[in-house]
Amino acid sequence: MPVGTVRLVPPPHPPHPVPGSMHAFDNAEAKESKTNGDEQNTSMRDGNEPYVKLGRLATLKPYRKLGLGSLLLNAAMNWAASNPHAILPLRSPTTREVAKMDGTISDSEETWNGLILVHAQDSLKKVYAKYGFIIDENMGTWVEEGIKHVGMWKRVELRTT
Protein backbone atom coordinates (compact mmCIF):
# COMPACT_ATOMS: atom_id res chain seq x y z
CA MET A 1 0.00 0.00 0.00
CA PRO A 2 1.50 3.39 -0.98
CA VAL A 3 1.91 5.62 2.07
CA GLY A 4 3.64 8.64 0.55
CA THR A 5 4.16 10.54 -2.68
CA VAL A 6 6.25 13.22 -4.31
CA ARG A 7 5.80 14.68 -7.78
CA LEU A 8 8.77 15.44 -10.05
CA VAL A 9 7.65 17.67 -12.94
CA PRO A 10 10.06 18.17 -15.84
CA PRO A 11 10.15 21.36 -17.94
CA PRO A 12 8.48 23.31 -19.36
CA HIS A 13 6.52 25.00 -16.58
CA PRO A 14 3.90 27.75 -16.50
CA PRO A 15 5.14 31.14 -15.25
CA HIS A 16 5.67 31.60 -11.51
CA PRO A 17 2.86 33.11 -9.43
CA VAL A 18 2.91 36.86 -8.96
CA PRO A 19 4.09 37.79 -5.44
CA GLY A 20 1.12 38.50 -3.19
CA SER A 21 -1.33 36.69 -5.46
CA MET A 22 -3.79 33.89 -4.83
CA HIS A 23 -2.78 30.98 -7.04
CA ALA A 24 -4.97 27.96 -7.76
CA PHE A 25 -2.83 24.92 -8.46
CA ASP A 26 -3.70 21.79 -10.44
CA ASN A 27 -7.40 22.43 -10.73
CA ALA A 28 -9.98 24.08 -12.94
CA GLU A 29 -9.31 27.48 -11.35
CA ALA A 30 -5.64 27.41 -12.38
CA LYS A 31 -6.36 29.15 -15.69
CA GLU A 32 -7.60 32.18 -13.74
CA SER A 33 -4.58 32.36 -11.46
CA LYS A 34 -2.34 35.38 -11.68
CA THR A 35 1.12 34.48 -12.94
CA ASN A 36 3.96 36.50 -14.34
CA GLY A 37 3.29 36.67 -18.06
CA ASP A 38 6.92 36.26 -19.02
CA GLU A 39 9.32 33.78 -17.47
CA GLN A 40 11.03 36.25 -15.19
CA ASN A 41 14.59 36.20 -14.01
CA THR A 42 14.90 35.53 -10.32
CA SER A 43 17.86 35.85 -8.01
CA MET A 44 18.66 32.17 -8.59
CA ARG A 45 17.63 31.51 -12.20
CA ASP A 46 17.69 33.32 -15.49
CA GLY A 47 14.35 33.27 -17.25
CA ASN A 48 15.35 30.57 -19.74
CA GLU A 49 17.15 27.88 -17.76
CA PRO A 50 15.14 24.63 -17.58
CA TYR A 51 14.31 23.35 -14.11
CA VAL A 52 12.54 20.47 -12.43
CA LYS A 53 9.74 21.22 -9.99
CA LEU A 54 9.18 19.00 -6.97
CA GLY A 55 5.76 19.11 -5.42
CA ARG A 56 2.97 17.38 -3.61
CA LEU A 57 5.28 15.75 -1.07
CA ALA A 58 2.94 13.97 1.32
CA THR A 59 2.71 10.95 3.59
CA LEU A 60 -0.33 9.41 5.20
CA LYS A 61 -0.81 10.61 8.77
CA PRO A 62 -0.02 7.28 10.51
CA TYR A 63 3.33 7.16 8.64
CA ARG A 64 4.57 10.66 9.41
CA LYS A 65 7.64 11.33 11.58
CA LEU A 66 9.26 8.13 10.26
CA GLY A 67 11.57 9.81 7.75
CA LEU A 68 9.55 8.78 4.70
CA GLY A 69 9.31 12.36 3.40
CA SER A 70 13.10 12.57 3.52
CA LEU A 71 13.40 9.27 1.64
CA LEU A 72 10.95 10.45 -1.03
CA LEU A 73 12.62 13.84 -1.47
CA ASN A 74 16.12 12.34 -1.68
CA ALA A 75 14.95 9.60 -4.04
CA ALA A 76 13.37 12.14 -6.41
CA MET A 77 16.46 14.38 -6.41
CA ASN A 78 18.84 11.41 -6.83
CA TRP A 79 16.78 10.02 -9.69
CA ALA A 80 16.75 13.40 -11.45
CA ALA A 81 20.50 13.86 -10.97
CA SER A 82 21.14 10.39 -12.41
CA ASN A 83 18.72 10.75 -15.34
CA PRO A 84 19.14 14.23 -16.86
CA HIS A 85 18.35 12.81 -20.31
CA ALA A 86 14.88 11.86 -19.03
CA ILE A 87 14.34 15.34 -17.56
CA LEU A 88 14.98 17.16 -20.80
CA PRO A 89 15.38 14.71 -23.69
CA LEU A 90 17.70 15.81 -26.46
CA ARG A 91 15.96 17.06 -29.56
CA SER A 92 16.95 15.79 -32.96
CA PRO A 93 19.67 17.89 -34.60
CA THR A 94 17.22 19.07 -37.25
CA THR A 95 14.59 20.13 -34.70
CA ARG A 96 17.26 21.93 -32.64
CA GLU A 97 18.61 23.87 -35.61
CA VAL A 98 15.16 24.88 -36.85
CA ALA A 99 14.22 26.11 -33.35
CA LYS A 100 17.46 28.11 -33.11
CA MET A 101 16.91 29.67 -36.54
CA ASP A 102 13.32 30.55 -35.64
CA GLY A 103 14.51 32.02 -32.33
CA THR A 104 12.14 29.77 -30.38
CA ILE A 105 14.96 28.21 -28.31
CA SER A 106 18.35 29.30 -27.04
CA ASP A 107 21.40 27.22 -26.11
CA SER A 108 20.59 27.71 -22.40
CA GLU A 109 17.18 26.08 -22.88
CA GLU A 110 18.54 22.86 -24.34
CA THR A 111 20.14 21.30 -21.28
CA TRP A 112 18.93 20.63 -17.77
CA ASN A 113 21.80 21.54 -15.44
CA GLY A 114 20.40 20.22 -12.17
CA LEU A 115 18.20 23.15 -11.11
CA ILE A 116 15.24 22.15 -8.90
CA LEU A 117 12.39 24.35 -7.62
CA VAL A 118 9.93 23.76 -4.81
CA HIS A 119 6.94 25.92 -4.00
CA ALA A 120 7.40 25.43 -0.27
CA GLN A 121 4.67 26.07 2.25
CA ASP A 122 5.86 28.94 4.42
CA SER A 123 5.74 26.72 7.51
CA LEU A 124 8.05 24.15 5.82
CA LYS A 125 10.79 26.40 4.45
CA LYS A 126 13.18 25.36 7.26
CA VAL A 127 12.62 21.71 6.34
CA TYR A 128 13.52 22.33 2.69
CA ALA A 129 16.52 24.42 3.78
CA LYS A 130 17.90 21.31 5.52
CA TYR A 131 18.04 19.70 2.06
CA GLY A 132 19.94 22.62 0.56
CA PHE A 133 17.05 24.61 -0.89
CA ILE A 134 17.48 28.39 -0.75
CA ILE A 135 14.63 30.91 -0.69
CA ASP A 136 14.45 33.09 -3.78
CA GLU A 137 13.47 36.47 -2.32
CA ASN A 138 12.72 37.82 -5.83
CA MET A 139 9.86 35.33 -6.15
CA GLY A 140 8.13 36.79 -3.09
CA THR A 141 5.28 34.92 -1.42
CA TRP A 142 1.88 33.92 -2.72
CA VAL A 143 -1.09 31.88 -1.57
CA GLU A 144 -1.46 28.52 -3.27
CA GLU A 145 -4.49 26.40 -2.39
CA GLY A 146 -5.12 28.62 0.64
CA ILE A 147 -1.57 28.27 2.05
CA LYS A 148 1.26 30.84 1.93
CA HIS A 149 4.19 29.64 -0.22
CA VAL A 150 7.73 30.70 -1.12
CA GLY A 151 9.95 29.65 -4.02
CA MET A 152 13.10 27.74 -3.10
CA TRP A 153 15.85 26.51 -5.43
CA LYS A 154 18.58 23.90 -5.27
CA ARG A 155 21.08 22.74 -7.85
CA VAL A 156 22.05 19.07 -7.78
CA GLU A 157 25.21 17.69 -9.26
CA LEU A 158 24.40 15.57 -12.31
CA ARG A 159 25.61 11.99 -12.26
CA THR A 160 25.80 10.54 -15.73
CA THR A 161 27.45 7.23 -16.52
Topology:
Elements: E1 4-9, E2 22-23, E3 52-59, H1 68-82, H2 84-87, H3 93-102, E4 115-121, H4 125-130, E5 134-135, E6 141-144, E7 147-155
Parallel strand pairs: 2-6, 3-4
Antiparallel strand pairs: 1-3, 4-7, 5-7, 6-7
Describe the structure.
There is one protein chain. The chain is an alpha/beta fold. The protein has four helices and seven strands; from the N terminus they run E-E-E-H-H-H-E-H-E-E-E. Strands 1, 2, 3, 4, 5, 6 and 7 form a seven-stranded mixed beta sheet that branches.
Keywords summarizing the entry:
single chain; 161 residues; alpha/beta; seven-stranded mixed sheet; 4 helices; globular
In short:
The protein is α/β, with parallel strands linked by helices. It has helices at 68-82, 84-87, 93-102, 125-130; strands at 4-9, 22-23, 52-59, 115-121, 134-135, 141-144, 147-155.
Mean pLDDT: 83
Beta content comes to 15-25%
Quickly give the structural class. alpha/beta
What is the end-to-end distance?
A: 33 Å
Q: Can you give the helix content as a percent range?
A: 10-25%
Q: Tell me the series of helices and strands, N- to C-terminal.
A: EEEHHHEHEEE
- Total beta strand runs: 7
Q: How would the global form be characterised? A: globular
* Unreliably modeled segments: 26-38
Give me the number of helical elements. Answer: 4
The main pleated sheet reads as: 7 strands, mixed
Oligomer: single chain
Radius of gyration: 17 Å
